[in-house]
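Hello forum,

I keep getting stuck at the same step: I have a sequence, I want structure tokens, and every attempt I make locally crashes halfway through. Rather than fight my setup again tonight, could one of you with a working pipeline run this one for me? It's a single chain of 450 residues.
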Amino acid sequence: MTDTAKPDTAGPSSIASSLSAYMRPRAIVMLLLGFSAGLPFYMIYQNLSLWLAEAGVSKGEIGLFAWTGFAFTFKFLWAPVVDRMPIPFLEKMIGRRRAWMAAAQIGIALTLVAMSFADPSKSLLYVALVAIAMAFAAATQDIAIDAWRIEAASDAEQGVMAAMYQYGYRVAIMVAGAGALIVADNVNWPAAYQFMALLMGIGLLTALFAPKVEIREYVPPPRLSVAQTMSKSVVGPFRDFFSRFGVHGLVILLFIALFRIPDFLMGYMTGPLYVDLGYDKTTIGAIRSGAGLFATLFGVFLGGVIVAGLNIRAALLIGVLSQALTNLIYSWLAISDATAGGLAFAVVIDNIAYGAAGTILIAYMSSLTNTAFTATQYALFSSFYALPGKFVGGFSGFMVEGVGFFWFFVITAVVGIPAAILVFFLGHTEKKMGVAHATDEKTDAKPDSG
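Reply #2:
Ran it on my machine without issues. Output:
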């Protein structure tokens, strides 16, 4: 019954044949674009929270910086612009999706340089404004990359593409989380942000010069009036989603909204925890780039295996429970001695769960889109999974000040329970997914995987 909802490109073929999908040109391009998407993440969140903590900013104020991420949450509001507005000159050379990627990547690099001129102890407002601008540019890049990913591969290949995106994304997080911290420890924070701005060139070069691998051509929409444009680019994607899933669409959106709350709630407080425990930036960076990197890559691979081998409900349940329960390790860390081994253990377990859950969620959300509204619908889903977590995450610093780190991380694990319960109501949506994709695939020019 649920087997029709999972990709089956390899069938009974060998493991070697399955692994070869990861070496295809489009998968390599996806890896590099994933790196570009992940690079600004730590510079906005984890590294910035460490810098603020070292500068003496209160935990309550640090927590409020989680709200700079609302740019990612509300990116669906300007996703129709990315879908429909051309980028002069660049679009004729590399296509609309890549043109938007390049423009956003330039914006990210410029804001990273601007952040290098900040002094958190003297001008917290400047830091906040630059962080918001950086998040806006990074969210725009995400819209373009997500749309390109879905259009560059068949539905059956989305598991591989999601895994490669996660590989690149998580490697970038480790580079930013390790390389930037080592630079900050040995030089200073401004040099770290300038170094990350330089590395954004990897994504820019990929967007500009990578070979064309898209299997579905982007067709610019016809010129329409403002009212028609709003109907087709804003109202249309919403109407299409609910026409395919009906009232169960609300269950899907609620589940997506709750899925990542444990991680979003705890994420901005790990940096202050490390500072309070007395870890130096080089130790934090070395563990993130060493044990943390390999743990993440394994988690991403494990997530791809889970998506390919299990029905969607089982995969989602594993993702929800693993990311919530592993937060308890940070409760243990908060009351333990500050040893490198303890930090490594916490980072490894957390990263395996985070990598696997991320791959599972990306593959699930990708399966829900209609190619007629790729960018807008995927941006809608990714915004829904971030909204509640980002909002609550803004109060995380005040929660830590009120209950302490130990009970704070216990709370972050408990809040994963509602999403786990909702998994059992998603069976109704699977039947509708089968019907919806049977309709969508008529335009995909690919064999029916169902």
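Residues 98 and 207 are 5 Å apart (CA to CA). If your local run keeps crashing, start a new thread with the error log.
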